[in-house]
Design goal:
Largest sheet: 6 strands, antiparallel
Helix content: 25-40%
Number of helices: 8
Order of helices and strands: HHHEEEHEHEEHEHEEEH
Structural class: alpha+beta
Number of strands: 10
Number of domains: 2
CATH architecture of the largest domain: 3-Layer(aba) Sandwich
Distance between the termini: 35 Å
Strand content: 25-35%
Shape: elongated
């Protein structure tokens, strides 16, 4: 099948993005200028840009032009990695900023999640992760103070998982869940987005090698991240089919 002109233009723009001519978070030239550059009609150019937007290469902003999106970081749901490890594996620049570190009384729900008494204080750590100098993850972490006494902000300039390992608590597995949320006014201001723009929230309880709950994390992700899922359809037994229940484990994502 003969390739459409708009498809060829889209491929050329992708090559320019990959070659660094147009960097992530920067705008493409105006539509009229791009159409002249590639010697095509504006309708063809619009079709090409629309296909790039649908594929996640660019974002069209009404009245503001078209912005190049950063390459998404895969946040696998079957392997436990820290954010630092994920960004490093993707080859991006990464730095962290500690916004808060306080000791506070846990809520009844938080105490239950961490398996502690309502009277046991917790450390509340708030950090902002930058990927290629752009705010990408707003992170809140709760630690039972009885397992991490006397900590200071400087220990969290590196990886939390590495610090826990240095204290003899090796992060081994986690239980968690995802949901879409609105970030709220303060978080939106810090992330540089609209308070009405949905973000993906990941909440997880992390366990060490002794099945001890060592922390609870709540991460809010920008669109620098994506969440690949592999699902396999399995044949149900007669009883499972009747109940609509497929309890087999999913295939891990490597």
């Amino acid at each position: 099948m003969k390739q459409k002109m708009s498809e060829r233009i889209a491929e050329k723009i992708i090559q320019e993005i990959d070659n660094g001519r147009w960097r992530p978070h920067h705008k493409l030239p105006p539509e009229k200028e791009l159409a002249a550059m590639y010697e095509v009609s504006r309708n063809t150019l619009r079709e090409a840009v629309q296909s790039l937007a649908e594929a996640g290469y660019v974002k069209r902003m009404h009245g503001s032009g078209t912005m190049v999106l950063p390459r998404a970081i895969n946040y696998g749901i079957s392997t436990l990695f820290s954010i630092s490890e994920l960004v490093k594996r993707n080859g991006d620049q990464h730095r962290k900023e500690v916004l808060e570190l306080n000791i506070e009384k846990p809520s009844p729900v938080l105490a239950e999640q961490l398996g502690i008494s309502k009277l046991d204080p917790v450390y509340r750590l708030v950090r902002l992760h930058y990927v290629n100098d752009n705010p990408s993850v707003y992170e809140v972490v709760y630690f039972p103070s009885r397992i991490l006494s006397g900590i200071t902000e400087d220990v969290f300039e590196g990886s939390i998982f590495a610090y826990l390992e240095s204290r003899g608590m090796v992060p081994t597995y986690s239980d968690g869940w995802f949901r879409a949320v609105r970030p709220g006014v303060e978080v939106a201001r810090i992330m540089g987005i609209s308070a009405n723009m949905p973000m993906m929230e990941h909440e997880m309880i992390v366990y060490d090698q002794n099945n001890q709950r060592v922390c609870l994390t709540v991460d809010l992700f920008s669109d620098d991240f994506r969440f690949p899922i592999r699902r396999v359809r399995r044949k149900l037994t007669g009883k499972q089919a009747e109940m609509g229940n497929d309890s087999d484990k999913e295939v891990p994502i490597e």
